[in-house]
Specification:
This protein has 3 domains: about 230 residues, Rossmann fold (3-Layer(aba) Sandwich); about 50 residues, Helicase, Ruva Protein, domain 3, CATH 1.10.8; about 80 residues, Arc Repressor Mutant, subunit A, CATH 1.10.10. A 3-stranded parallel β-sheet has the order 1-2-3, covered by helices on one side. It has a 3-stranded antiparallel β-sheet with strand order 4-5-8. Strands 6-7 form a two-stranded antiparallel sheet. The protein has 19 helices and 12 strands. It is α/β, with parallel strands linked by helices and about 500 residues long. Its EC number is 6.1.1.17.
Length: about 500
């Protein structure tokens, strides 16, 4: 086997390390996974799932999780997109052990490997023009053949190559093995075999010398000692090419796990063009990170019938064997249901802090009303998001504006005496929930009416809406002065 290309020292090229990586006590190389997004726009749930699984696998195995930014598409890459990736991962708690590393900062390393490959005969210069390639492919299609490069500049024993044309910059092509097959056991898809005859000699450097995606990925994975590549199945076609380059360089390929596509709620591939939301938009809509992580974990992986589990349980349970083989479909209602569960279970103080920015955005002065923490504790069981929580809490911080038709229905002449009696009773009662509940029962008994008959008009007058938690809890939070004043408007 060819000796692996020596990697440069880490001080020159961050993130690189010798091919003879250290092993743990068992003699096995430690698990090293990576997330390698392109910073060409916002990151959606389908993208971030490709970070969650390698992160969880590294954590479950006591390994290392690497973030690599594949920013070689200079025209489309942006600092804003990089920041969106970093923000999304930080919000979800996907902490990285190494990186972020940027491919554009590793160009010297790529050129170094290219030069070594050319010197070893693993790659060669090709001067075929774009026009020649187009004509070749047109002919092949006309003959019913698969369009592919025909190897006209590939050096072979006994073959005389054309004279390089003057003034024409060459690409660099990898010398793909001429026979046999590329075989790997995909951790999701099972055994995959691709005949080398199906793979032409891949361009690994453009005429201006810049390396191509498949080449950069190989050098990065080798230098960073990646043991497991967990990524979307849109990369399956790249894998045999990458394996061949890795093997030519003397490296053992990592374990590959190609994840099925995430479909949107319409059954189409989740994408920015198809209306997918940015991960950060979920934060801005009031979702909790633990709910999104739980939801994403089940969007292509399962541990028995478990639907709700903590981050710690997810890490302990995660494995590659139970990754799903079929596309997973995004269900916004299920995510909302999960979020409502986590809202109910959340610490009230934490929830009150998280909800503060939403209250400010809604124009609520939460210092000019009932205690915010108490309001959040009362309302959270009725909300699916922090936004909904604040919408429900708004009644405590705004003057009531009950609908006239609702008032006509609920505040009838027959019920007005009961409202007046309650107002009278509440002026002297101890201002606690049990005492207010007792006052309500006394008025109901004295007036001979049921709770809804009295509670509905009281809700409208005090809160401006009929949709509130238990009336005694609501009145307690509003405070005696506000309640007495608002019940006077009968």
């Amino acid at each position: 086997m060819t000796e692996p290309l020596a990697a440069p020292v880490p001080s020159r090229h961050p993130g690189t390390a010798p091919a003879d990586a250290p092993t743990d006590a068992s003699g096995q190389a430690p698990v090293r996974t990576r997330f390698a997004p392109s910073p060409t726009g916002f990151i959606h749930l389908g993208n971030i799932r490709s970070a969650l699984y390698p992160w969880a696998f590294a954590r479950s195995k006591g390994g290392v999780f690497v973030l690599r930014i594949e920013d070689t598409d200079v025209e489309r890459s942006s600092e804003a997109a990089v920041q969106t990736i970093l923000d999304g991962m930080a919000w979800l708690g996907l902490d990285i052990d190494e990186g972020p590393f940027y491919q554009m900062q590793r160009m010297d390393r790529y050129r170094e490997v290219l030069a070594q490959m050319l010197a070893r005969g693993l790659a060669y210069h090709c001067y075929t023009s774009t026009e020649e390639l187009d004509a070749l492919r047109d002919t092949q299609r006309a003959n019913g053949e698969k369009p592919r490069y025909d190897g006209r500049w590939r050096p072979e024993e006994g073959k005389t190559l054309p004279t390089p044309p003057a003034g024409v910059a060459s690409v660099v092509r990898f010398r793909n093995p001429p026979g046999g097959s590329v075989v790997w056991d995909d951790a999701v898809k099972g055994r995959i075999e691709i005949a080398n005859a199906e793979l032409d000699d891949l361009v690994i450097a453009r005429p201006d010398g810049t390396p191509t995606y498949n080449f950069c990925v190989v050098v990065d994975d080798a230098d960073m000692r990646i043991t497991h590549v967990i990524r979307g199945d849109d990369h399956v076609n790249n894998t045999p090419r990458q394996i061949n380059i890795l093997r030519a360089l003397g490296y053992t390929p990592p374990v590959y796990a190609h994840l099925p596509t995430v479909l949107n709620d319409a059954g189409e591939k989740m994408s920015k063009r198809a209306g997918a939301m940015s991960v950060m938009q979920y934060r801005d809509e009031g979702y909790l990170p633990e709910a999104v992580v739980n939801y994403l974990a089940r969007l292509g992986w399962a541990h028995g019938d478990a639907e709700i589990f903590s981050r710690e349980q997810f890490i302990a349970w995660f494995d590659l064997a139970h990754l799903g083989k079929s596309p997973a479909q995004y269900d916004p209602e299920k995510l909302k249901w999960l979020n409502s569960h986590y809202l109910k279970a959340a610490d009230n103080a934490r929830l009150a802090e998280l909800a503060r920015p939403f209250a400010a955005a809604a124009g609520l002065d939460i210092d000019a009303g009932p205690n915010w923490l108490d309001v959040v504790a009362l309302i959270k069981d009725r909300a699916s998001t922090l936004k909904e929580l604040v919408e429900s809490a708004a009644m405590f911080y705004r003057a009531p504006a009950p609908d006239a038709d609702a008032l006509a229905v609920h505040l009838t002449p027959a019920v007005r005496p009961a409202v007046a009696a309650l107002r009278e009773a509440l002026q002297t009662v101890e201002w606690t929930r049990p005492a207010i509940a007792a006052a309500l029962k006394t008025v109901l008994a004295g007036q001979g009416i049921k709770m809804p008959v009295l509670a509905m008009p009281v809700r409208l007058l005090v809160a401006g809406t009929t949709h509130t938690p238990s009336i005694d809890a609501v009145l307690t939070l509003f405070g005696r002065e506000r309640v007495i004043d608002r019940l006077a408007h009968v």
